Amino acid sequence: MFLVFILQLFCQVSTPSTIVDSGIDQWKETSGGNPEIMARKGQELFHAGEVEGDCEKHLIGYGLLLEAHNKSHEAEITVPVLDTTTCPVDGLRIPRAEAIRLFDQAMYAEARPWFKIALERAEEPKLLASLKQSIGMTYYMAYELDSAMVWFVESTAYGLDLLTSVSLSNLANVSYIQGNFEESLKWGKLAEERLLEEFQTGIDAKEFQMRMDLVLINQVLSAMEIGDLPKAQANYGRMTLQDAFPGLAQEYFHAALQLAWALNDPYPIEIHEDMYAEHLIRDSVAMVQRFGPALCLIEPWRTQWALGEPEGANVWRALRALPLEQLPDVTLHPRQAANASGIQTDKSLVALWMLTLLSYGGLAWWWWRFRRRTDNGDLSDNSDPALLLRQAREAVFQPSEENREAGKQAVLALSQSIPQYRLTSFPSNLSAREIDILYAAAIQERPKTTAQRLGLSSKSIYMIRTDVSKKLGLTTGQKIEDWLSEVKEPKP
User: Fold this and answer.
1) pLDDT of 245 strictly over 70
2) CB under 8 Å to 381, separation ≥6 — which residues?
3) By the 8 A CB rule, do 389 and 360 touch?
4) Cβ neighbours of residue 172 under 8 Å, at least 6 residues apart?
5) CB-CB neighbours of 366 under 10 Å
6) Full-prediction pTM beyond 0.85?
7) Is residue 229 exposed (0-12), middle (13-18) or buried (19+ Cβ within 10 Å)?
8) Which residue of 89, 176, 261, 289 has the smallest Cβ count within 10 Å?
């Protein structure tokens, strides 16, 4: 959700330190920053340098192609493979541009060493702080929040006055996700003050308002988490929400819904209804999947809802009467919301979900074992894995007596292929929501996709992952994905 700001953070101007850097800057300036012109000149210099054996020309061309590629995501600009044995990478611009390209492709682990090379070659304090923020973002996007926070904090060593509002917002974001809500409020306030300073230096008024909304929403969420509803209301009231960066409107709507639920008053949504309606209708299928009946608070869903209701029916009262499981997460404490129904998963249901988790790495093997059992009459012919998994999942999320019985039978059928030592690896107190997060980690699902599938915000996903890590007994820096890989391996 922070891609716009991340790109701005990455693209701060640096002081050229080599002939290659100077050459890249010169041609960028000559082209007026036009990516198509940069790409043409880059191709020309790259091939000329290759033919002439001129590494400086070769590298300048490669750097221009990288810069053109990063600046124009729509253009089909191909970046060739650089032979670093013949022409070792020189300067600071190429490593940083290479890192940005990989980051933009969600290759965070691959981008990180390039950022670190750029960091080693940087000298200007502002650039050093920016690169440390960038390294922190590679950890942040890979769920490694402790490492992300280390780099974010290190970026403050050069003085808070060198950090942009984006950098300070990063600190607020990670503090929030880690449950340090007071810290998040502190960093959010500093980000707000820095943004006001940046506005005075020439930020466009519309962009300033959109950035301020992003800064304020962190303060709204943190204030709600510590139970300070007046502060949450006040900060939400300061948001203009006339427009939003792509993808952020749904996060704002979710936060507004949580605030409205806590106040038992839909006004947080009503005062910005036009913006929500305009943005959420653009991807109506995904929005319906995420928010369900809560969308009836805004158009065009409200009108459609009213068609089947008696005159004078109130959509807010109708929503308040619905069971929580039919709504997106509307509680103030996402990490506790998963247990709101009081349902706890027992060892057998966790075992079932372990099978699902393990299947992403060994589905073919498991399917062969399953078919052998069905051929031998151990299971009924109509009990395929998909059906059994669905039955057991319903037993977790819709705990009727009938569903529980079907779930037990499904677990009995499926757990035959799970070695006993794997079952003991799991804690017995995982909630249904936490099992969903484990499943998302196993299939390497991206946070945004998981959030949409579960009807949660991306931040809630990170927070639930933190709770799962604690229940699994993971140490600082240890990832859930690594733990799952270890569990998959047979014991020696």
Assistant:
1) yes
2) 374
3) no
4) 184, 185, 187, 188, 191, 215, 218, 219, 222
5) 17
6) no
7) middle
8) 289
